[in-house]
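Ticket reopened. Same input as before:
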Amino acid sequence: MNDKTVTVEVGLGDRAYDILIGPGLIARAGETLSARLPGTRVAIVTDENVAAHHLETLRDGLERGGVAVAAVVTLPAGEKTKSFSHLQDVVDAILAAKLERRDAVVALGGGVIGDLAGFASGIVRRGMDFVQVPTSLLAQVDSSVGGKTGINSARGKNLIGVFHQPKLVLADSGVLDTLPIREFRAGYAELAKYGLIDRPHFFAWLEKNWQDVFAGGDARIEAIAEACRAKADVVARDEFETGDRALLNLGHTFGHALEAATAYDSERLVHGEGVAIGMALAHRFSARLNLASPDDAARVETHLRAVGLPWRLADIPGDLPGAEKLFDYITQDKKVSRGALTFILTRGIGQSFIAKDVPASEVLAFLKEALAG
Amino acid sequence: MNDKTVTVEVGLGDRAYDILIGPGLIARAGETLSARLPGTRVAIVTDENVAAHHLETLRDGLERGGVAVAAVVTLPAGEKTKSFSHLQDVVDAILAAKLERRDAVVALGGGVIGDLAGFASGIVRRGMDFVQVPTSLLAQVDSSVGGKTGINSARGKNLIGVFHQPKLVLADSGVLDTLPIREFRAGYAELAKYGLIDRPHFFAWLEKNWQDVFAGGDARIEAIAEACRAKADVVARDEFETGDRALLNLGHTFGHALEAATAYDSERLVHGEGVAIGMALAHRFSARLNLASPDDAARVETHLRAVGLPWRLADIPGDLPGAEKLFDYITQDKKVSRGALTFILTRGIGQSFIAKDVPASEVLAFLKEALAG
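Engineering reply: fixed in the latest deploy. New output:
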């Protein structure tokens, strides 16, 4: 096994923390935590699927390194777990284990577990230590950076939560070998996003090296590290999302609308796939508005197709609603102010920007074209 | 009506905010909010008792000043309201009213409502604006400064919450005229606490002027302002309670134990009364340990007695448990490390300090003496 570990520092002043990326980090978690958070006791929060693969490795790794595991909470897998009722279960388990503010909640899993366990750690005793052990590519490049935590409300996703930065992230690149290929690809869409936002060289590198990233090894570690660096840069500029951080939503406005239009049916579309199509649409829409060259839109589409991701509406199995209905899903997500919307658009590969006055009529016309194929 | 308004700034950098103290602030809330938080819409959270006295004044005052009231949540009065289930109700009402991050939750009530509404405002959309309108003396001098919010768990009080600073506090000194005298006195105990922590001149001033504070008018406003300044100083030094902020717990270790020993029966003892007795005991205990002069302990006891507050164990109606049991209640609240406890003790009036190595045996011996009268 390759023992290379790359460290990315998220520079947030007194909330700064490190992301360690490399193989075997879960098995070595105990020595790492003992060195960085001496004396900590932990509660592990995970889901049933992830527990089957990695819980014993983590627990043994922690205990071997002298870290006491005071509680393990294993929840059902899936988005529905991000609820008030599961939050209350996790909070209660942490309190029952008598963990203090300088003890840690360890999230072992994907975005759902990270969001839920992070939120719980942010509210027990008004904030205790939090360690992320993301086990999906999506969580390693996205949810593990930035401190957003939360649960869903019947009124929308992620409407309830806090900003709570972890003390440490262990992104074990080895665990990604056990991911289904479709889930790995979905995470890859968010990884490519960072190239498209403001790192054109990274996107070009991915165009050349994506097969190595999929295969594992150093290229995968480097790609995850670069995505984490990119996100950390944006978050350091705008921790509480009052400005630039909105760039991270590239592809997400169209993507969320498509997730809603397919009733969050993961057989048809998972989040990362929605983002892939959303990024392709954002580039094509930017070209239609004469902001970017159609060649750049074509480059994005070609790359997504090459890695096996969906990139156009026709790639979604089953029927989609009409343009007006898709537009309604878009405006559910955001305010329409005097007939104009805010979108993340682009002037080319790696030149995304926040466009605040996109005419609703242009969005609608573009959706009609896109549906017509 | 006297229109004097005193402003105390809580200096927390980009989370700094003002506390306005004076009569008639609720009726003028609309113009104040319009000027300081332009364009804000609000959800009011209150309890049934407070609503009967002040809700219409606040609602009219807001709407007259051009602030839209998008929702009103009226909860049962009492500590039991600080629960997960009421938190969820408040969060849902805020989301149903489609409030955004720059809209505000307005807490109209005492500490329970402030803690619950503040917590809700801290987690909806990962933090929205929050305005406190404290209607008890205790809430005006204590809960309204410092950003602690939260709810209770079956495992203890205030174990779940966040630090979330308000944007503005309107401490309407006029509403205190409608408080039952016992509740006013209980708040006065926390007010006097700030003199005992580190403001000996303020304590001396209260000894001379307490009757004017009880009567209302400028002395009351000045006393509230000075207590808020004192607390703001401590909080600015230690926002997240990693050090000096523990000084605010003067009187609270004994006080909490007494509240628990009387089963939180408010007929026998309310929080501020527990703090009054706790402060007297902390001074007497410090004298017993030869840290402070017995004359200072006597001064504290004399003043509490003068204003009508309980100051010794014998002032609590009904039977108390024995010294061992009281000691157990104390250690439920805090860790006993190698036979020693952390207490807030004092070297004299206004000279409190954090004592980290108080022998358990001394605490127990002192409790036996105090119970013997």
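Residues 218-237 of chain A form the longest helix (20 residues). Chain A has two domains: 6-179, 237-372. Please confirm and we'll close it.
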